Structures are given as C-alpha cells and as structure tokens.
Amino acid sequence: MHNSSTTPKLGRGQPMPVVGAPPKERLFCRYTGLPFTRITLWHGCILLVTLLLMASGAAAATQTDELSVLGTLIKWTPLLFQGFLLNLLMSALAMGIGTAIGVFLGLAQISLMPPVRTSSWLLTQLLRNSPWLVTLFYVMYLIPFEFEVFGVLVIMPDWVKATFGLSLPVLANVSEIVRGGIQSIPETQWEASTSLAFSRKQTLWMIVIPQCLKRMLPPWMNLYAIVTMATVLGNIVGVSEALTLTRDILASEAKTDMLLPMYGYILVFFFLYIYPISRLTIYLERKWTVKG
To answer: CB under 8 Å to 17, separation ≥6 — which residues?
Structure first.
C-alpha cells in the first residue's frame, strides 16, 4: 500500500524534479588530475569561419581579390602537407621510442629492489618535470650531427635528433602511466594470485597487465595528441616541419596580409588530425571508467 506521508509534495510554483538520466559528469585525467576539455564540432566550424574571415579581411585590406589569398594557400598546400607529414612522423617515432623505454621504466618503479625503484623514479621525475624545449635544445647540442660507425660516416639529420629529444619527456610520462595503471589494480588480486601459487612475474604479465591496458590507453592517446602538437617546437631548432615551411613561405611571398591566413591554415591541419583523437580518447575514458 502506498504511503502518502513519505512522498514529498510540491508546492505551487515549485519546479518539478527532473527524472531520467543523471547529468553527465566532467571527466578528469586519472594521472594528471586535469579536466578534459570538451571540443565539439562547433569549435572546428568557428575555426574555419575565422580563417575565411581573416583571408577576406586580408584581401580587402590590400584591395585584391579574395581568390588571390585562397589561391596562394592552395598553391603552397603540397609543401605544407609535406611538412605536416614530417610532424606526424616525428610524433609517431617519439611515441614509439618513448613507449618502448617508458614501459620498462614504469615496471622498474614498482620493482622490489630499492636501488632500481629509486633510480627509475628519479629519472622519471627528472625528465617529466623538465621543460620540453630545454630538453630539446640539450639533445640537439649533445648529439653530434655526424659520427663514424665501423668506418662508415653516419649523418644525423636535425629531425632525428629532435625526435629523440621529444621522446625523453614521452618516456617519462609513459613510465608514470604504467606505474599508475599497475598500482590502480587492487592489492587483493596480488594476494589471491600468490595464494594460487602464481609467481610475481606471472601475476604481473598474466593478471595485472591485461587489466591495466584499457586503463592506460586513454592517457596514452592523450599524450600522443600532446606530442603531435609539440612537434612544432622543431621550428626553433631548425627542423623543416610545417611551421618552419610556413615561415619560409611567408618570407618568399613577402605579403603581410598572408600572415594570419597562413598560420590559420596550419592550425586547421593540426585540428583536423587531433580532434578525432581527442574525441576517441574521451569516448574510451567514459567507456572504461572504473566505477565504485
């Protein structure tokens, strides 16, 4: 029988309570504590409209046809795309090198041997809390531009040295992702595995790591998006990536009205590539969030 005394009554003019799906919670990165910024398709539309307005304004300021600005952008698109591909190659290699070393560095942080655990923690903190640009300069001056291997002269291109410089902060962040992912597994699973005669190595690779992978993937993808955006730092150390080529094109065109449209064009390149990664990261973070 329904008890009417326990049912709250609404007064006149009082708003009805909302019944249905709970409000969406704002997502925070588990490892950095920073909130994920929701980037919608409207941001891309606003970016494109801004680019077109800049192009129109530049054409009107110089009393030239709008197509001249757009035509200049189209003319230089193959070269800019070539530079953008170098940005993507640098980011992929930096993530590959950083992930391969960072996984072992993260495993060393949970080692039972104090010297290994302490030294890996110190290296991780040193690289993770150093400015990326300072690390990049340090590597660029530390690695020679050519050296001999078994009598063969090997020339080291600037973009290879820059890629190695970007991989250093990557490996430190991957190390923290691995350490945090492993330590997020409840201690009871380690104890249960030990009671079933599993060794520590077997527990780690057969029970803990498979559960950690889906927890590590969203922050790893977020790190990849950050590294891709950071590859434009190669412009400062002389790498012929997209931003360097943009500057060279502006110098060759000698048109001040092309300044904003050209940089906006590069902005669109990066946005179109990173936006799907950002959306996929948010989707996976929601799907694999551990509740409770």
So the answer is: none
Name the pLDDT band for 287 (thresholds 50, 70, 90): confident
pLDDT band at residue 19 under the 50/70/90 scheme: very low
Condensed to tens digits (0 to 9), the pLDDT of residues 227-270 reads: 999 999 999 988 989 999 999 999 988 877 888 889 999 999 99
Amino acid at 124: T
Structure tokens at 227: 């590294």
CA-to-CA distance for 200 and 7, rounded, in angstroms? 55
Cα distances (Å, whole numbers) of residue 86 to 243, 248, 262, 276: 11, 16, 18, 19
Say what the pTM is.
Answer: 0.74
d(CA 67, CA 244): 25
